[in-house]
């Protein structure tokens, strides 16, 4: 949505530019129309643009550039900016040069330097603009987006009476869609204004030597600006897709995208609060696998706490304890690569803290994601997997309101591990125990009955406790179940060739037979990673009677027979140590499975018979 900027509403216009030339490229038409309407104009150049080595090397024909050379180049660029302002009808005395280091504004922001913030706040408070024009936080140039954050922090220092101005921002280096919740404003330029803007661009001769075509492309018939807006929890165009504060945790989802001009290690930066109020700047080096990561203070370099990353090299979630952050009215986050000039994206402001939906705090287990709206119960059957189940149960608690872990008569320390997790969960983890092994089907059905009787949930998720399934896939299962209105969602493994031989043969034969009888059957019939809608769980408990692995097949057959909606999501094929933790008996359990298929077929339930007799 766009709206037309009206110069008649302007009285005192302040433009802030990271470098000499930004004022012309982004606001050349606005400055002309402001002067023509009688407005008073002030242009603040935050740096001199002196760290600009490649144009300087080309023009001056020198490779080594000394501090004196940079100072001379900065003076040249200041002169070019004054000449451009004269072309635009702005008096040279309206320009102010602050002289902060070119390509150093991000360093100033992360170092929490007090003087630049105080200077910016004083400039705005003293001059009292009615229209403030600044770089956007989403500009891809690090100086531009860092200046935008510095200005927002500076504005937070102003008294209420000093904030009586409209604020808009511009992007000079922009390759992304409109920010979520923002409104584009456009300003039309008349032909003569375009001509004067082109003449002003030509005044920046030092920049035209390498960027002439790009610079002159800004002399168009329209200038675009972004109206200020409230921060949003979600932005599908930013690497930080969503960000939510709960009472004890800051959680955000990160997607790493390939950039031709940015590469190397990915670091996530968090800026919270202002220096004079005890603000902090934190950084987290993002790993490629789910692991605990160190959170560092960017000023001191010290590790201040540990966070949890759940994901892979392309995407994941960070769970950052709020204890690492000071009380703050503004929190900004950014993803940056180690090498490359431009950013993948700029800074995002995230919403203020808000209450979470979690039923109780977890001192040793992070709370579940607050953005996951449906109430989720997770069921994890466990049998003699003490070395594996703890990690699975703990991580599942990140994504569910409640976890039911079943100790199916284990003879190792599985029960002890599960009970230890339950003790520290404040009631969010329940352990059901059998004195002797009953079978996976019995364990699942017992947990289903407990969930229906004792817990409010919308979606029930099952997964194995031996690390074959990633708890990080739970949100996608749940979202698919809700968004698609599915009764059953199955995590489908696509790489059958990666399975151990006994699992591959059993799955292949079962799939072939089942798809012959039920063409709508998924390809992965034996995956234990599933999401079930609550009403379907009630039907499962009433109908399914399988004691071992055939119970999962009966659940699938019930959904097929009743023609319920079944969806799948892709998941990786994971088998640790050739699946030695599995207790599947190739002959006995395969016979149970094939008997179940044939029995179900003979009973005529494939058409969703209303009698739904137990099997």
What does this structure look like?
By secondary structure, the protein is an alpha/beta fold. The protein has three domains: 2-227, LmbE-like (Rossmann fold), CATH 3.40.50.10320; 240-350, Sandwich (Immunoglobulin-like), CATH 2.60.40; 376-602, Spore Coat Polysaccharide Biosynthesis Protein SpsA, Chain A (Alpha-Beta Complex), CATH 3.90.550. It is 33% helix and 24% strand. It contains 16 helices and 24 strands. The protein has helices at residues 22-36, 53-60, 67-87, 105-110, 114-127, 142-155, 191-202, 205-216, 386-396, 414-423, 440-454, 474-483, 501-517, 534-543, 550-561, 586-602; strands at 2-4, 12-17, 40-47, 95-100, 131-135, 166-170, 184-188, 222-227, 240-245, 249-255, 263-272, 280-285, 291-297, 303-311, 315-321, 331-339, 348-350, 376-382, 402-408, 429-434, 459-462, 488-493, 530-533, 566-571. The strands form three sheets. Strands 9-10-15-14-13-12-11-16-17 form a nine-stranded antiparallel sheet, with no helix packed on it. The chain has an eight-stranded mixed sheet with strand order 1-7-8-6-5-2-3-4, with helices on both faces. Helix 11 packs across helix 14 and helix 13 (501-517) runs parallel beside helix 16 (586-602).
Helix content: 25-40%
The portion of residues forming beta strands comes to 15-25%
Radius of gyration: 31 Å
Derived from helix and strand composition plus strand pairing, the structural class reads alpha/beta
- Number-wise, the strands total 24
């Amino acid at each position: 949505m766009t709206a037309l900027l009206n110069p008649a509403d302007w009285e005192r216009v302040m433009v802030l530019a990271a470098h000499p030339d930004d004022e012309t490229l982004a606001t050349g038409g606005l400055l002309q129309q402001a002067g023509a309407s009688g407005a008073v104009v002030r242009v603040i150049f935050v740096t001199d643009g002196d760290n600009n080595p490649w144009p300087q090397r080309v023009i001056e024909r020198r490779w080594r550039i000394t501090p004196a050379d940079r100072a001379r180049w900065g003076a040249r660029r200041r002169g070019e900016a004054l000449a451009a302002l004269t072309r635009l009808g702005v008096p040279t005395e309206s320009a102010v040069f602050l002289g902060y280091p070119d390509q150093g504004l991000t360093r100033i922001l992360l170092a929490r330097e007090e003087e630049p913030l105080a200077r910016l706040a004083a400039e705005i408070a003293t001059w009292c603009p009615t229209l403030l024009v600044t770089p956007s936080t989403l500009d891809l140039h690090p100086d531009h987006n860092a200046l935008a954050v510095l200005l927002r922090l500076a504005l937070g220092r102003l008294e209420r009476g000093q904030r009586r101005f409209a604020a808009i921002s511009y992007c000079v280096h922009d390759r992304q869609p409109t920010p979520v919740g923002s409104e584009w404003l456009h300003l039309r330029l008349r032909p003569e204004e375009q001509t004067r803007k082109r003449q002003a661009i030509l005044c920046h001769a030092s920049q035209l030597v390498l960027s002439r075509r790009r610079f002159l492309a800004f002399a168009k018939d329209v200038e675009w600006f972004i109206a200020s807006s409230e921060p949003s929890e979600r932005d599908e165009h930013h690497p930080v897709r969503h960000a939510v504060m709960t009472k004890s945790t800051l959680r955000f989802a990160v997607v790493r995208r390939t950039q031709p001009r940015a590469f190397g290690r990915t670091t996530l930066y968090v800026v919270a609060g202002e220096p004079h109020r005890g603000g902090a700047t934190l950084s987290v080096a993002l790993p490629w696998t789910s692991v605990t990561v160190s959170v560092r203070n960017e000023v001191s370099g010290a590790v201040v706490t540990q966070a949890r990353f759940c994901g892979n090299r392309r995407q994941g979630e960070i769970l950052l304890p709020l204890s690492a952050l000071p009380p703050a009215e503004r929190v900004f986050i950014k993803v940056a690569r180690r090498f490359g000039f431009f950013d993948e994206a700029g800074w995002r402001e995230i919403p203020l803290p808000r209450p979470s939906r979690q039923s109780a705090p977890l001192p040793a287990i992070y709370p579940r994601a607050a953005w996951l709206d449906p109430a989720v119960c997770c069921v994890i059957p466990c049998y003699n997997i003490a070395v594996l189940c703890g990690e699975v149960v703990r991580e599942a608690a990140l994504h569910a309101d409640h976890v039911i872990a079943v100790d199916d008569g284990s003879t190792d320390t599985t029960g002890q591990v599960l009970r230890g997790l339950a003790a520290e969960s404040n009631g969010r983890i329940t352990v059901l125990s059998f004195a002797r092994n009953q079978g996976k089907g019995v364990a699942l059905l017992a947990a289903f009955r407990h969930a229906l009787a004792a817990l409010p949930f919308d979606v029930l998720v099952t997964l194995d406790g031996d690390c074959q399934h990633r708890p990080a896939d739970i949100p996608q299962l749940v979202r698919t179940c809700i968004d698609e209105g599915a009764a059953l969602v199955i995590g489908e493994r696509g790489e059958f060739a990666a399975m151990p031989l006994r699992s591959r043969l059993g799955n292949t034969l079962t799939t072939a037979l089942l798809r012959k009888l039920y063409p709508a059957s998924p390809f992965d019939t034996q995956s234990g990673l599933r999401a079930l809608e609550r009403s379907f769980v009630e039907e499962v408990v009433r109908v399914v009677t399988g004691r071992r692995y055939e119970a999962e097949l009966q659940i699938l057959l019930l959904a097929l027979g009743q023609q319920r909606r079944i969806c799948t999501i892709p998941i990786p094929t994971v088998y640790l140590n050739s699946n030695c933790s599995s207790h599947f008996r190739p002959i006995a359990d395969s016979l149970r499975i094939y008997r179940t298929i044939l029995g179900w077929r003979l009973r005529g339930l494939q058409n969703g018979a209303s009698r739904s007799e137990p099997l």
